[in-house]
Each structure stands twice: as structure tokens, then as C-alpha cells.
Design brief:
This protein is mostly helical. It is built from 5 helices and 4 strands; from the N terminus they run H-E-H-H-E-H-E-E-H. It has a domain of 95 residues: Orthogonal Bundle (Recoverin, domain 1). The chain has a two-stranded antiparallel sheet with strand order 1-2. The structure holds calcium ion.
Amino acid sequence: MTNGSSQTNKLLYSDFKKVILDFQLQEHERFLIKFTNLFKSVDRDQDGIISEIQFQELLRMMNVLEDESEIESLLAQVDPDNNKKMTYSEVVDALSNHMMPRDPLNPSANNQIALIEKFIQEGGDVDIDDGMTDMGH
Ligand SMILES: [Ca+2]
């Protein structure tokens, strides 16, 4: 009966870790899918790189920033070299690091949310897939 039991435990543990990692990756992708689809819609040649104009378009479509000066400041942040090109991961990074008030009518330092998260939770109605509307119910 003892034959091979320790090996089984090891396998289970590594499987478990793999399941957790896969799950986290899937959750991350699921979290980002709304944003990813929007990015794809402005990245018309689908090479994962957008121009300054397309970035501004992306931010306007996200519909979470209150004024144009915030778009300008984000642009400077994402494209510090001013080479007018930004990759998908640069954009995700910048929008994940840009904190903003969760509620614009009640801004307070301890009630901040990342721009990208705000968009995913409540931003502009991007018509993608109806299958994901069950969050928060
Ligand atoms: Ca492109």
C-alpha cells in the first residue's frame, strides 16, 4: 500500500501550483479582456503598437478621464521618449499605475482606483461580449 505514495504527493503539489498559476493567468486575461478588445479596435493594423493619436482615441473611448489635460499627462508618461509609439504592455502599465478617484464627486486619497480598473468596472459601454455581465450580481 505504501508503494509510490510519496511520489503521488509530490505530483499533486506541483499540479496544484500549476492550477493556481493557470487560474491567476486566466483571471488576469479575463480582467483585461475588455481593455484588450478596445486596444485591438484602435490598433487597426493589429501589431500591438499604437500611435499617439490612437492612444488619445483609446483614452476617449474608455470614457473615464474627466479632462483633456489628464490625457496629455498620461501621454507624456507612456511615451517619455516621444517616439509616438506605444506598445500594448506599456499602455497597460501606464493605465495600471495611473490612480484616480473612485468617485469623482468625493475624491479622497484613500479611495483611489487604477484607471484601467475603473474602466473595466464601469467605463464606457464597449460592445463586446454579453457573457461577462454577471459581475457584481
Ligand atoms: Ca498598430
